[in-house]
Amino acid sequence: MRREAAYEPVIGLEVHAQLLTRTKLFCRCPARYGAEPNTLVCPVCLGLPGALPAVNGEAVAMAVRLGTALGCRIAPASVFARKNYFYPDCPRNYQITMYDAPLCEGGALEYDAPEGPRLVELERIHLEDDAGKLLHRPAARSLVDFNRCGVPLVEIVTRPVLGDPSDAALFLQNLRRLLRWLGICDGNLEEGSMRCDVNVSLRTPGSRRLGTRTEIKNLNSFKAVEAGIRLEIARQRKVLEGGGEIERQTSLWNARRRELVVMRSKEEARDYRYFPEPDLPPLEVRAELVERERSRLPELPLARERRLRAEYGLPAYDAGVLCAERGIADYFERAVRAGAEPKEGANWVMREVLASLRERGGRIEEFAVSPDDLARLVRLVSDGAISRTAGTEVFREMLRTGEEPGAVVGRLGLELLADPRRLEMMVDAVIAANPGEAARFRGGKRQLLEFFVGQVMKESGGTADPRLARDLIERRLAPGGGER
Ligand SMILES: [Zn+2]
């Protein structure tokens, strides 16, 4: 047996996702990112004596939406609990979370992995409030911003079922996609609106008993998740192979140095002294709310991805790219309904549309070229009215001016040049200007055909019919074809 196979990793994830509610979980302060420090606070989220929390119904609805999308059991009554700890980011000295009676239990996230369909079972999902943020300044000074105190979070806990670091990263990407798809979290790992903690243990293959697990916090990118888990697996393996024992510990990922730093060991393990939150009654979720959220669920990303493949014959890769965001899938399907051939439409969305979105920023919903206009453009190209090269130029003009494609084609004179007489003249001019290449082509260097086609396209300002141009060049440069 290979030495590396002596232990297999077992990975579980705890993901915190900030809900996109207007207000915080227990007060009416705006739940907004990026405001001036300590401007979005009130006695409730500052934990002042006598201030009483009241649950935000929008946050409950969003958590229920997520639970129904993941097939969880939604508890008709769940219980908020106090998790006691002392730290400057938490002015109340306790977090309000859920402990032994969470909002959602069970369920699973399903997605297509490269090796096939994957189903990752979940332990639970619960609601809790976020802590403030410490800003560490030089000269050992730290500042605290309480704006984030009380912002609603869902904590999504998987069962320990993930087998390796890339498996964990893929799960997270798919979870992030679902959260964004449902409009309940923006999934921004860098800004911390989605955060991931990892539990890792090793066991001998086939053994049902889990080894002692350690925890990694602060993993703020998919790459960090993979790299952090990889380091921790290597560390544990080394300890076990040296005859040692794994001790419970929590480490932090240091993104700058790309290493794990032990934050606390077993002796420092915290006792949070959980108890039911006395200021809040049990959270009742009526069957009507669950039904309402379930009935309003959009077609979920996996189902959509599979449908795009089946209905339009798209390759798995294309369907995956188009379903990365609900808005992109919507845009694509609107273009197809407006007459774009599906595979051609997919190509235009994946190349031109996504590239210019990346370049210019902004949301697909407000994209300057409407799906209807894109469909018109795709048809101009596939009907052979303009060349693909001219199409790209038309697209750029549409972005700039908002014109419809026909108008741009007319204004710039981009109709396909398919007049053999005029094309012949261009071909002859190009051959005459490149006698060396022409001689090498005749000598057998066939790859130069593309060079000549490119020259003719350039000469014609991208309007030449490439098929016709290619034919003419081949005829002119064929043995015995001769130039006039
Ligand atoms: Zn407040």
Q: What keywords describe this structure?
A:
484 residues, alpha+beta, Arc Repressor Mutant, subunit A, ten-stranded mixed β-sheet, 15 helices, 17 strands, binds zinc ion
Task: Describe this structure in a few short sentences.
By secondary structure, this protein is an alpha+beta fold. The chain is 39% helix and 20% strand. The chain is elongated and about 90 Å long.
Low-confidence stretches: none
In percent terms, what proportion of residues is strand? 15-25%
- Global mean pLDDT: 93
Radius of gyration over C-alpha positions, nearest whole angstrom: 30 Å
Shape: elongated
The biggest beta sheet, please?
10 strands, mixed
Instruction: Give the helix tally.
Output: 15
Which structural class do the helices and strands define? alpha+beta
| Termini Cα gap | 74 Å
Q: What is the share of helical residues? A: 25-40%
Strand segment count? 17
Count of domains:
3
Give a structural overview:
The chain is α+β, with helices and mostly antiparallel strands and 484 residues long. It folds into three domains: 3-293, no CATH class; 299-412, no CATH class; 420-477, Arc Repressor Mutant, subunit A (Orthogonal Bundle). Helix content is 39%, strand content 20%. The protein contains 15 helices and 17 strands. It has helices spanning 57-69, 165-181, 222-241, 287-296, 301-312, 316-322, 326-337, 342-360, 371-382, 388-401, 405-412, 420-433, 435-442, 448-459, 466-477; strands spanning 8-18, 73-74, 77-78, 80-84, 94-98, 104-105, 108-113, 116-129, 133-137, 141-145, 152-158, 194-203, 214-219, 249-254, 259-265, 275-276, 283-284. Strands 1, 2, 6, 7, 8, 11, 12, 13, 14 and 15 form a ten-stranded mixed beta sheet that branches. Strand 14 and strand 15 form a beta hairpin. Helix 1 (57-69) packs across helix 4 and helix 9 (371-382) packs antiparallel against helix 10. The chain starts with 7 loop residues before the first strand and ends in a 7-residue tail after the last helix. The mean pLDDT is 93. Bound molecules: zinc ion (ZN). Zinc ion binds next to loops. Zinc ion binds at residues 24, 27, 29, 41-42, 44-45, 150.
